[in-house]
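FW: tagging you since you asked about this chain on Friday. Here's the raw sequence from the shared folder, copied in full. Didn't touch anything.
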Amino acid sequence: MGSENFIDKYLTESERSQLSNAKFGNPVGIGERPALVLIDVQNYMSPPSSMPADLEFPSSCGEAGALSVKRISAVLTAARATSIPVFHTQFVLSRDGKDIGVYGRKRALLNSEGWCLEGSIGAEFIEETAPLSSEISFVKKKPSAFFGTPLLSYLVDRNIDSLIVMGGSTSNCVRATVIDAMSNNFRVTVVADAVFDRFKISHDVALFEFQRQYADVISSHDVIKHIGTHNDK
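HL: got it, structure written out here
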């Protein structure tokens, strides 16, 4: 799946030519020891239909989130049938905002049970893709799953060489995680239909940039097919 598929309509002819001439977007592939990383698959990001009708979710990614959660679940099911490790991040902020940092200058702390506040319904993992007891989950306070968390040490301990990344949002926490993963020399695969965003243009641009220089971007069907071969290794 080439990067131009995501944003070709936004490029000029000269930009398309430059993209081709600069030889961006070479595939890196999934390594011998991959891990699955689910970024903030929580109710506040994609509230299930079973949530109370009177509860608002101000950061919901709407239909895009709901559709992606189904694909996340499918990939997760395939991975759980193998020895591939699974990691879940959970973005949670203190109700008094003491840990929001400079992010609190960019947007307000939302006093909502449908947001990512500690102890709220919004902060909980979506039941459909919630961590099993055998899987590792941890709270993060910044966009990247690597910043201020034990993720890197977990990956090193398990000799992981590549990450398969899903979750949301594509342009924020997924993007930050992908860049940090690549910077730490992990091969990265982003599952195109298993990441989601509130804004289509943000989603499209992020996928374009992933494919151009940070990661491979492939469908959940292709990832599941690859995972199926992992049982033979």
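FW: The chain has eight helices and six strands.
HL: agreed, and The radius of gyration is 18 Å.
FW: great, closing this out.
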